[in-house]
Design goal:
Sel1-like; mainly alpha; signal; 65% helix; 292 residues; Serine Threonine Protein Phosphatase 5, Tetratricopeptide repeat; 0% strand; elongated; TPR-like_helical_dom_sf; 2 domains; TPR repeat protein; Sel1_AlgK
Length: 292
């Protein structure tokens, strides 16, 4: 069963979806895993890799184990942190599941294992509810975003196959319901490239703008480029585009963001002096507002 894209699209950034929509999303996730599994190694989305009990630590609660895991992680004992977090995750603690997912996705103190990361993130999605815990909202949104990324590219050698349509569903849900800026950026990229959804530059600009306003530098860069050049029928706003490109350039971090600097340099060099001056004036205004 495929998730209804039209139903998901009706969820605005400020609105919560109905319970029926949540049921559809989670059922779609479970269905995707079952349909894509190899018969000899089928895994249900609700049956995960066993989590060690870590009973020797004698944790009295998942919260205590989580605190111990965070403390040990910050102290540099990542193996100890993983053991504590695994206990909390075994009790269904969302933050512990999310942290373990990130650790396995990045090979941070544990062997790199995207499938384990996928399954930890899936457990968060499985357990999410309409009402939700505000403290876990960011964690849940991030989990749906991570699932979208895995569905987009697939996980080689596993039952998780590339599925851009499913990736769209995950990004759209995380972007609309949780307002996750990474999901908003990824959703915009799908609309820009026509990947998993019909290409729509205006929708791409809309989602880039939502992420850009939250300080997402790649979104700021691509939105700025679209506005400077009026790409895909998006109304040309050269000065505003230069402002976004400058903010993106100022927030660029390391070599992974070299493309942002290159995009800024290209557009700034092609801009008129009047547009540059107007952009600098607006940037001074933005800076003065931030300092208040």
């Amino acid at each position: 069963m495929l998730t209804s894209r039209a139903a998901l699209s009706r969820c605005g950034p400020a609105g919560a979806p109905p319970r029926r929509l949540r049921t559809i999303v989670l059922a779609a996730l479970a269905g995707a895993l079952l349909l894509q599994a190899q018969p000899s190694t089928a895994l249900d989305a609700f049956v995960r890799t066993p989590v060690p009990a870590a009973a020797e630590k004698g944790y009295r609660s998942a919260r205590e184990a989580l605190r111990a895991g965070v403390r040990e992680y910050n102290a540099g004992d990542k193996e100890g942190a993983a053991r504590a977090l695994e206990y909390a995750a075994g009790q269904g603690h969302a933050l512990a599941l999310w942290k373990l997912g990130r650790m396995y996705a990045e090979g941070d103190g544990v062997p790199h294992d995207d499938l384990k990361a996928f399954e930890f993130f899936s457990r968060i999605a499985d357990a999410s509810t309409d009402e939700g815990d505000p403290q876990n909202a960011a964690v849940t949104g991030s989990a749906f975003t991570a699932l979208g990324s895995y569905f987009l590219d697939g996980i080689k050698g596993t039952y998780v196959r590339p599925n851009p349509e499913r990736a769209y569903d995950m990004f759209n849900y995380a972007a609309s319901y949780y307002g996750d800026p990474n999901a908003q950026y990824n959703l915009a990229r799908l609309y820009l490239d026509g990947n998993g959804v019909e290409a729509d530059p205006r929708q791409a600009a809309r989602w880039f703008n939502l992420a850009a306003e939250k300080g997402h530098h790649p979104a700021q860069a691509l939105l700025g480029d679209m506005l400077v050049n009026g790409a895909g029928g998006v109304p040309q706003q050269r000065v505003r585009g230069l402002v976004w490109l400058t903010l993106a350039r100022d927030g660029a971090q390391g070599r992974k963001d070299d493309w942002i600097v290159a995009l800024y340099d290209k557009n700034w060099a092609a801009a008129s002096q009047d547009d540059r001056n107007d952009a600098q004036t607006q940037l001074q205004t933005v800076g003065s507002i931030k300092r208040r």
